[in-house]
Amino acid sequence: MHITYTAAMQAAPDTTNEDRFAVGDGWALVLDGAGRYPGESGGCIHPITWVVDRLAAHLASGLGRPGQTLKTIVRVAIEATMADHGPLCDLDDPLSPGATGAIVRIDHDQVEWLVLGDCAVVIDQGAEHCASVIDDRVDHLPDAPVVEGRVRTYSPAYVATVRNTPEGFWVLGAAPEAADHALVGALPRESVDQVLLCSDGVSRLTERYGWTWREVLDLGTANGPSALIRAVREAERGDPDPRRWRGKRHDDTTVVTLQLADQAEERQMGMKITGRSPSP
Ligand SMILES: [Zn+2]
C-alpha cells in the first residue's frame, strides 16, 4: 500500500496556532483546539496548545498500534490526556479545553474515518464523486444564543449546558464518552483516490464562500495544500461582512491529503508511506 501525503498549516494572523496534524503509516489526523472563552478558565491551568499536543500524541500512539477501533483509540487518548492534566485541573468543568478532530486510517481493504466536532474528512472517489463528513451538530443547536463580543459566538454559559451532552455537541477533551458519539464510517480502499482532512479554518471555503468540495480537491491536487490556505485568506480578506458569521474572521488553517496509489503503482512502489514536509 503506497500512500503519499501533502500537508499545510497556518495560524490565523497574529495568533498562536491551535491546530495540529500528524501522519503515520497508513493514517493521518487533524486537531483544532476548542479554546477558552474570554474570562473562562475552563477549570484548567494548561494552555490550549498543551491540550491539543497531548491529544495528538496519544492519538498517534494509538493509531500506531493495530487492532483497535478508531472510537477506542479516541476514548483511550481522551482518558490519557485527562490523566496528564494533574490535580490542579477541574475536568468536570464543562468548558474544559479540548479539540475537534478528524482521523483517517487506511489498510489494504478499507479507508476508515472518524470525525468529532467541526473538522472535516472529504473522500475523493474520482470523476465527479466525492463525499464529505462533517459533524455539524454545533451549527444546529436549537435557540442557541449568540453574543456579539470581539468574536461573534455562542455565550459561554449556554455552551456549558450543551458541550459534551447528547443534546448538544461533542469535543475531544475531558469526556471519554465523546468517542461513542463520533461520526465514523468506511469505504472499500479500491474505491478511493484520495482523502482530505482539514480544520474548519479550511472548510469555510465551502461553508462560507460557496466552494464545492470538488473545487477544493481539484485545487489541492493541482497546486498543493498551501494553495488552499491562500484561497481561504483571499476569501476572508474579500469578505464584505465577516461579522455575519459565527466565529472568527480568520482561523487557523490545516489541510492534509492522502493520495492512494492505484494497484499497478502499488506493486511497483512497495509498501511505505512517503511524504513532503508541511509548508507554512
Ligand atoms: Zn489542565
From TrEMBL:
Signal peptide, first to last residue: none
Transmembrane stretches, start-end: none
Domain PPM-type phosphatase span(s) in chain numbering: 3-260
InterPro entries to which the protein is assigned, alphabetical: PPM-type-like_dom_sf, PPM-type_phosphatase-like_dom
Name of the protein in its database record: PPM-type phosphatase domain-containing protein
Protein's organism: Micromonospora rosaria
